[in-house]
Specification:
- By secondary structure, this protein is mainly α.
- The chain has a single domain, classed as Globin-like, CATH 1.10.490.
- It has eight helices and two strands.
- The protein has helices at residues 8-11, 14-29, 44-58, 70-74, 81-97, 103-114, 117-121, 131-135; strands spanning 68-69, 146-147.
- A two-stranded antiparallel sheet has the order 1-2.
């Protein structure tokens, strides 16, 4: 019998590490003058709880809340790719400071979060986003990204 490989969520330290990372991450994001305006009328407590849920699901950890549609949550906020890049750069900084996470796992975290750029910037389903799939001769998955108890994180190629 083969053992089930440990999830990325478990490899980085589970809920405790995700919680610490998100707290440190939002300390940076909320102090960024270009990103802070996106959160002016947002409950930081609710935001961090939702982000912990998102990271948990994206890293193959447990999910406790029902459907969270990323495109819907971010719709109309005016988030551009440049904002998303700043956001990810803060994540990279936090991960680099986390002494319990290997560089390989840190880059895997960044990769998994970055796959949601189109939902967050409002470009989900636009043409040109799937050229890597099409180039490889694979069929792109064109479903909305919904995080739920079922771990529906369908991105990429089939």
């Amino acid at each position: 019998m083969s053992e089930t490989p440990e999830s990325l969520y478990d490899r980085i330290g589970g809920a405790e590490t995700v919680s610490r990372l998100i707290d440190a991450f939002y300390a940076r994001v909320l102090n960024d003058p270009e990103l802070r305006p996106f959160f002016e009328n947002t409950s930081v407590e609710r935001l961090t709880e939702m982000q912990k849920e998102f990271f948990s699901a994206a890293l193959d950890g447990p999910v406790h809340h029902s459907d969270l549609d990323l495109a819907h949550v971010h719709h109309g906020r005016g988030i551009e790719r440049s904002h998303f890049t700043r956001f990810v750069n803060h994540l990279i900084g936090v991960l680099e400071e986390a002494d319990v996470i290997s560089k390989r796992d840190a880059m895997e975290v960044v990769h998994r979060i970055s796959t949601f750029v189109d939902e967050i910037t409002g470009r989900a389903g636009t043409s040109g986003d799937w050229t890597a799939c099409e180039y490889a001769g694979a069929r792109p998955i064109r479903r909305r990204t919904v995080i739920s108890r079922r771990h529906v994180l369908r991105r990429g190629c089939e």
